[in-house]
Structure formats: C-alpha cells, structure tokens
C-alpha cells in the first residue's frame, strides 16, 4: 500500500513537471518571452495591443520544437514570433505565394531581411505558387493570418481550394493543426465579399477546410468585435485594425 502511494506521488510529480510554465497572464512563458523579445521591430510591437499575439498563440498551441508554416506571412509579424517560440530544435517556413509577391512585394522584401540571420536562423523563406504548394517536410502547424480570404480573389489566380486545402492536409503530421485567422464577413455571405471588403464568412471557411478531411477543433473569440457590422472594407479608417476576426482551429486526424 505504501509503495502504491509513493508511485502515485511520483506519477503526479512527473505530470506536474511537464506542465508549461506560465506568465502572470496565464500564457506559457515561451510565448510571452517571444512576444516581448527585444529583436522584434518597434512597428510590430506597436500592433500587439490590437492583435493580442500572446493569447492567440496560446490558443493555437504552438510550442518549442515545432515545425511551423507561416502561410502568406506578410512582412513577418508572426514569423519572427514563431522563430523565437520553436527555438533551435524547431523550424519556421515563411511561405509567400508568388501571386501575392507580385501584388505586395514589400512583404517578401521584409522577410528576407531577417530570415536566416543569427537572430532568426530557424526561419526559411519559401516562394511558391498558391496552386502548387509543396512544403519540404511534414509539419506540426500551418498558420495563416488575415489572408485566407485572398485565396478567393482574382489576383491570386483563384486556386482550386479543394486541392489547396488538401495540400495543407498532406503537409501536416497526423494530429497537426491548421489555424485560420481572418476578417469576418456577414453571416450567410459566403465568398461574396472577399474581393471588395476583404472579408470571408467563417462558415464558408469551415466548410472548405473540413471538406478536405480536417476536424474542426474549436474557435477563439479573443479578436471578435460585436460592434463591427461587417459592411465596410477592412481598410476603411473607421474600422481598420478593429475588424471582427475569427480564429478557427482544425486538426488532421491521427488516423
């Protein structure tokens, strides 16, 4: 009986030591440290109050050692944070579609200023057509922030979304996560506002991605804004930076 009690204590102690340390806000310390890292540009840090990267990433579940794809990374706001979280045993692929590079070349230019440098040696830039995504290895997470709607726009070549999402599915390890953060369009609007308002109906995203074989895990509402009426472009001065954003988490089944 005494041995059994000692065994229970030992198991409990091991379990406790495997729980990630958390900051005062309840966010894992490796996420909090990456967000407050001194290497991040002031312009990026100035966006943190609205973008809430610590809470968003805690929901996503990214952790040290992960292999992550930052799909359509813009100037690298999240790529830099990912690089610090996954550390020396992890990898970040900042994947910029060639179509988006033609439309917004400054993003790729920004990525190339830090990817592979001593501060971010684990960040690699990939430039590929959205119609033929080919990630070098299976990864733990594919992440896309505020850009999934662009895949439905003419300037991106309107790729076959069933094929596109299946390529993401194939790139993930079993149990891997596909995280989509985007500007919400009005309920029932489907794909009709991706070009003019740069928004997408969350239900349309869920339908497309689950059709590729993903399981819907859940949603974070940390960036939702009930005051956004979904009627204005995300670039309208009255709503820019304050749009209603959904964060959906999908998982590739283990088998």
UniProtKB/TrEMBL annotation:
InterPro entries: Methyltransf_11, S-AdoMet-dep_MeTrfase_Alr7345, SAM-dependent_MTases_sf. The keyword Cytoplasm does not apply. Residues 1-21 form the signal peptide. Keywords: Methyltransferase, Signal, Transferase. Coiled coil: none annotated. It holds the Pfam family Methyltransf_11. GO terms for molecular function: S-adenosylmethionine-dependent methyltransferase activity. Residues 72-180 form the Methyltransferase type domain. It comes from the Bacteria. GO terms for biological process: methylation. This is Methyltransferase domain-containing protein.
């Amino acid at each position: 009986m005494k041995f059994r009690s000692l065994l229970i204590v030992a198991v409990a102690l091991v379990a406790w030591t495997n729980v990630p340390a958390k900051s005062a806000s309840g966010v894992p310390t490796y996420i909090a440290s990456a967000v407050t890292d001194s290497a991040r540009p002031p312009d990026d840090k100035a966006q943190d109050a609205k973008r809430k990267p610590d809470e968003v990433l805690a929901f996503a579940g990214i952790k040290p050692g992960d292999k992550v794809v930052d799909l359509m990374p813009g100037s690298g706001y999240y790529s830099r944070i990912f690089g610090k979280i996954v550390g020396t045993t992890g990898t970040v692929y900042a994947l910029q579609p060639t179509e988006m590079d033609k439309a917004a070349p400054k993003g790729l230019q920004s990525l190339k200023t830090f990817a592979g440098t001593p501060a971010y040696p684990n960040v690699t830039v990939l430039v590929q057509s959205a119609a033929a995504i080919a990630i070098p290895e299976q990864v733990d997470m594919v992440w896309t922030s505020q850009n999934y709607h662009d895949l439905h726009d003419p300037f991106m070549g309107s790729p076959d979304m069933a094929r596109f999402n299946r390529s993401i599915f194939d790139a993930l390890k079993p149990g891997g996560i596909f995280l989509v953060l985007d500007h919400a369009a009005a309920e029932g609007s489907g794909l009709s506002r991706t070009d003019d308002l740069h928004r997408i109906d969350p239900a349309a995203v869920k339908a497309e991605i689950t059709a590729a074989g993903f399981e819907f895990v859940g949603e974070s509402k940390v960036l939702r804004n009930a005051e956004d009426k979904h009627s204005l472009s995300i670039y309208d001065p009255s709503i820019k930076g304050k749009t209603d954003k959904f964060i959906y988490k999908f998982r590739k089944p283990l088998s």
